[in-house]
From TrEMBL:
It comes from Fervidobacterium pennivorans (strain DSM 9078 / Ven5). This is ABC-type dipeptide transport system, periplasmic component. Residues 68-519 form the Solute-binding protein family domain. Keywords: Signal. Residues 1-19 form the signal peptide. GO terms for molecular function: peptide transmembrane transporter activity. It holds the Pfam family SBP_bac_5. GO terms for cellular component: ATP-binding cassette (ABC) transporter complex; periplasmic space. SUPFAM superfamilies: Periplasmic binding protein-like II. GO terms for biological process: peptide transport.
Amino acid sequence: MKKSLALSLLVFASILLLAAFDPTVFVEATIGEPDTLDPHLAYDTTSGEVLYNIYENLIAYKGQSVSEFEPRLATEVPTVKNGLIKDGGKTYIFPIRKGVKFHNGNPLTPEDVKYSFERGLLYDPDGGPMWMLWYAIFGFHSRDEAIEQFVGKPVSEIFDQNGQPKPEYREKLVNFYKQVIDPAIQVQGDNVVIKLKRPYAPFLNIIAQSSHWAAILDKETCVKIGLWDGKPDTWWKYKDVTKEQSPLYSYAIGTGPYKLVEWDRKQQKVILVANENYWRGPAKIKKVIIWAIPEWSTRKAMLEKGDADTIDVAIEFVDQLSSNKDIQIIRNLPTLAVTVLLFNWSVNPNSKFIGSGKLDGNGIPPNFFSDINARKAVAAAINYDALIQEVLKGSGKRVPTALPQGLLGYDPSLPLYKFSLNEVKMYLQKAWNGQAWQKGIKFSIAFNEGNTARQRVAEMIKMYMEMAAPGKVKIEVQPLQWPNFLDATQNGEIPVSINAWQADFPDPDNFIFTHYHSMGDYADRQGEAFKKFVSTPRKELGGKSLDQLTENAAAETDAQVRGKLYAQIQKFVVDNCLSVPLYQPTATYVFRTWVKGWYYNPMRPGHDFFTLYKKQ
């Protein structure tokens, strides 16, 4: 305890040495340091903020938009109209900007672009973000899935215990690069051409600025520091490099407006300086300090004294700053995230969360929530407005499906589920042809321990369902530690679970596919009966399955047509109560009033320091 206090005082003392106002220095106090500076491994916003300001992508989001783009290292944004999207949406052509230099003075070339994409695809580290490019370009979810398809053998049989290819598969892996990777990303003069296996509408979103997995690296420097040498017969030597072993773990050279000076691990501090030779002109802020200060009281003091220009603040602490006239608070900014209650239509029969596993008053059958009335009874037992106002302090909004407001296809005209004890009773009486009401039910709702909002949702369902059906409904609320919660949901053991999804890229497919497709990330948590339901052709969907409509919408390149498809999908989702969207959270930012030039984009990880300046 004394050691911790002494350390805090030392950090605070060093903070006080900062000038209260310097228009050339920007200080951000955060709650954590980066995980890695390797763009192809980083998958967190703290790392992403640093990478966003050091590297650049081919294209960028235009201001606050998540659907309009502007050129960055490419001179044009590909469209069908300008002829840079061809073959029905399968070929994208990027003219590469001339005269751009990396921070070490090396000129940007189309070869750097090709190398950057290929290195990321071949590296594809576990738990990293490269699955998005694999899926967008090739239709696979990983490098290993693609290898197994190409070679015809499991990866475990292709490589030896040291990760090297067995002799009989070596040539196959060389050809994997030559026949799969190399043809997909080509240099043609001053252009880089990327060929998709099938049209995939979100492709530009996946490679736009803020998606550091599509950042452009300097090939010459990468090879020099020990990354893949670009040869087809060596790539596997670099495929399983761990986080700290990556030469890019704490090293970065890009073309962006800021250069990395240091990442001080002891002080959890990253220092950036302006790139005075930046092709768009030098930034007004000449030095950026991103400092991890875990203690709220220290961050608060820094902001109040002017030693920090912005800080991370949890929603419950925001009002502590509201009376300070030198601090600006920007509230209720829409995020691209949704918290959703999921039903498991085919619970693991061995689950301890369904009691007896029968409709006998002491449990529910594993397929209990395959009945729409059972699902609607739960949906009616949630006091949505109280959840948002009392628990979230107003920092959330209701949405009709798992698609957040702000994305293509969002339809505010769709009905919202409503809180009603009468409807809870009515739907329970209908569930399982009246047997649920007659015999009674018992099950558990689990949530990850420490998540207050999820706990309150679970408690609401328990209280209101038991209130609407006294003696007929028994619900247990079970907090689980995060690893145990994940295991239980992924093993299909929890009948009702509460989950949150944050956009990987700002496209409806990232939400619609995830929640409603039989191969989506949540499909296993919703059970085999759910998968069968969404993959079976339906009369109300014109003879197509929900899976088919979802795939058609993802492949459609006409935004108007896509929007109509997503409207049709969502109407079906609401009508059948496939899941229950609880809220779309909103974001809050705090700054000193002297900070100018800030704008919000929900896909950006942190701040765009290039646009900022300070003026008293």
